Amino acid sequence: MTSTTLKKIAQTLGFSISTVSRALKHHPDISVTTRNKILELANTLDYEPNSFAVHLRTQNSKLIGIMVPTIYNFFYESFISAIEEECRKNNYSVMILQTANNPITEAENTKLFKQNRVSGVFACISADTQDYTHFTKLADANIPVVFFDKVPPLEALNKVCMADEQAGALAATYIAKAGKKRVVGLFGDPRLSITAKRLAAFKSTLASSAPKTELSILHANTSISGTEQILKALDVTKKADAIFCMSDELLIGAMKAIQQKALKIPKDIGIIGISNGFIPTLFYPEITFVETSGYKLGKLAFTHLINCISGSVLTEELTLDATLVEGGSM
């Protein structure tokens, strides 16, 4: 079965192609009677406009690209959910690509976005990305890019991030108020700006709020390596009395280590993390966390990208405030 075209609708009803086209766009020059006849037949025949033709005419594909390390992550899932909701409201579609934290795949994905003539791109970079030429090529093709969560350490780029320094400081302040003396901080890849910001704020806040507290800093890139690191930390003579995890993935790893050691929370050890909000509710008692919402970040990011698509030349780095959600883990 061939797809329904404007020509077929026009021939069936005896109208010109231009009349059918204007009627489908609800043009005021077309009478209500004529428009209703055309719309009724178009609906009956399941007419759909040629998206490529529309793009050539309007220079807007109504397609948004989203690039994430993985979709198997609650933060990215909720970010994508927010973007998809806003796209549906604004008649955009989404194209989601994963990088598996591989810079080569990342560069290939930008080519796919360009080939599909996306209107704009949301990009979360990999830890190993050092060459940003592939993103520059998108900009040269008039495809705006808004970086989110894990962003390049460069100026003059559109970025939408959580208030990472604020998140680290809130967690450290809470630990200090809880009177913890031997703290293990579990952080992500030190090459990423998100890690550097959270680590710097956490260390400085804890040093000023509780100068006698012992702090050990560990780094892990996965929940598995997080488990290994925490197991080692819990084996030392002077055991930690609190653990801080800078992400949900590391929180999962730390909790597995605590469970393997059969430690009671918060009696034997306290734990606090930076989280999207779902993982802490899976444990009892629920884990105290600093909320960094992927959903809220997605809403903010969409507004920013639409402004760029609409022609805004203002380069901005926007941040979303973090908030403390108290559980029973400290």
Summed up:
With 330 residues, the chain is an alpha/beta fold. The chain contains 12 helices and 12 strands.
Compile the SSE list and pairings:
Blueprint: H1 6-13, H2 17-24, H3 32-44, H4 51-58, E1 63-68, H5 74-89, E2 93-98, H6 103-115, E3 120-123, H7 133-140, E4 145-148, E5 159-162, H8 164-177, E6 182-187, H9 193-209, E7 214-219, H10 223-234, E8 242-245, H11 248-260, E9 270-275, E10 288-291, H12 294-309, E11 317-320, E12 323-325
**What is the global morphology?**
elongated
Biggest pleated sheet: 6 strands, parallel
Query: N-to-C SSE series?
Result: HHHHEHEHEHEEHEHEHEHEEHEE
Care to count the β-strands? 12
CATH H level of the largest domain: which superfamily? Response regulator
Structure in words:
It is a single chain. The protein folds into three domains: 6-49, Orthogonal Bundle (434 Repressor (Amino-terminal Domain)); 60-161 and 295-320, Rossmann fold (3-Layer(aba) Sandwich); 164-292, 3-Layer(aba) Sandwich (Rossmann fold), CATH 3.40.50. The protein has twelve helices and twelve strands. The protein has helices at 6-13, 17-24, 32-44, 51-58, 74-89, 103-115, 133-140, 164-177, 193-209, 223-234, 248-260, 294-309; strands spanning 63-68, 93-98, 120-123, 145-148, 159-162, 182-187, 214-219, 242-245, 270-275, 288-291, 317-320, 323-325. Helix 9 links the parallel strand 6 and strand 7 (214-219). It is α/β, with parallel strands linked by helices. 44% of the residues lie in helices and 17% in strands.
